[in-house]
Design brief:
142 residues; alpha/beta; five-stranded mixed β-sheet; two-stranded antiparallel sheet; 4 helices; globular
């Protein structure tokens, strides 16, 4: 069992690192990818947003489904990350958790982390460090 796991995530990729001490070099434990978050609207099946008629009169307007779909995918991936971490915590693979994610995705992660997982968090770093090497992640450890 590692004492500390470090989650480095954005809306389409996540890496989990393990370390015994905040100043020790972390090692990669697991990677998660969510390709659906990277898809453009036309790759999801449509180029143009849906259109609706106003209730009265001939006016029509479009719906912003691209943003809604992107938000749903972001939440879906956050739940996938949360499920993975909750299972690892249940198996006692770590005691403490450091979360490193951009401010927007960090907020989404906070929404989906359960109470038990939330209690394991010892620090949050509001930076998008996905794709950085272990030395850069270690440099941002609190």
């Amino acid at each position: 069992m590692s004492d500390i796991w470090i989650l480095v995530a954005d809306s389409s990729a996540a890496q989990v690192y393990a370390t015994r001490h905040p100043r020790a070099a972390p090692t990669l434990v697991h990677s998660l990818d969510h390709m659906q978050s990277r898809l453009r609207p036309r790759e999801r099946g449509t180029d143009q947003p849906g259109r609706v008629h106003d209730r009265f009169g001939p006016a029509r307007h479009s719906l912003d489904t691209a943003q809604q779909a992107k938000s749903e995918e972001r939440h879906r991936f956050a739940r996938e990350i949360s499920d993975y971490l909750a299972e690892a915590q249940r198996r006692k693979q770590f005691r403490q958790l450091v979360v490193m994610a951009g401010p927007a995705f960090l907020g989404v992660l906070r929404e989906v982390f359960g109470k038990t997982l939330g209690q394991a968090i010892i620090a949050e770093v509001p930076k998008d460090l996905v794709g950085q090497d272990a030395a850069a992640i270690q440099a941002h450890m609190p």
